[in-house]
Amino acid sequence: MTFSVIARDPATGDLGIAVSSCILAVGRAVPTVRPGVGVVVVQARSRRGLGTSLMAGLVEGTSPQDLVRHASHAAEDVDRQIAVLDARGEVAADTGRGSLPASGHLLGEGSSVQGNMLASPDVLPAMSQAFAATTGGGLADRLLAALTAGQDAGGDLRGRQSAALHVVSGTPASEDDDGIRVDLRVDDSGDPVAQLRMLRNLQRAYDERDYETLAVFAPEGARDLYAALAASRRGDRAAARSALEAVRTRPGWSTWLASMAGDARLAAVSRLLD
Predict the structure, then answer these.
(1) Integer Cα distance of 124 and 140 in angstroms
(2) Which of 113, 173, 188, 246 is the most core-located residue (most Cβ within 10 A)?
(3) Structural domains of the chain sorted by starting position, each given as residue range(s) with its CATH number in brackets
């Protein structure tokens, strides 16, 4: 019914999960994540509270191996599929005998892929290989590469509906940093993994101030603003002036621009209209 990948980035310590399923809002049902603690995956026909109790075990210092071992012997969880990753990269997983075939899990170095009711036995090996082979980008991109490979190999036997991507820091949250690096969800879509990749690309554009991309893909009301910033960056004064004039014609935007006078990026563009 679901396929997922969890992993720790040894370079940054970040922890994450990418998951997809033919259910509504899989990002609500399957992952439990906590900065500085770990990632828990609860799939198949599992108790809804199992993820919370497994995360509580990580908080208390119990190892993933012990948590999974205990859950595997619990009669009420015979149908479940779980995977647990802690902040040190220790990982354990188990596929209960009630999980629907094709099902299973594969452990890697600081990572695990798992799935049940899969369209093909090739899904999990494809995910594991893609994660190991993807060296560019950060943890989020490696997780997405694995999820994409799983979908391309058949994914969920029933079809496609939702997907989610979560990445958190390997250190606990603080007043200055909530520890959330990526939190993206596609709750209902005919091609959720592809849409999740689009959201990740859009988030990257915001993070990297890629104004050229945002001028095309940002919400309609903000596109002219990003077009002005992009044109200003590349030295096209005429295009920047035209785009900024379009921004100022939108109701309320002139007031907002005036309130942002102290922002160096906007001030430089606004001077083109002076």
Answers:
(1) 18
(2) 113
(3) 2-207 (3.60.20.10), 211-273 (no CATH)
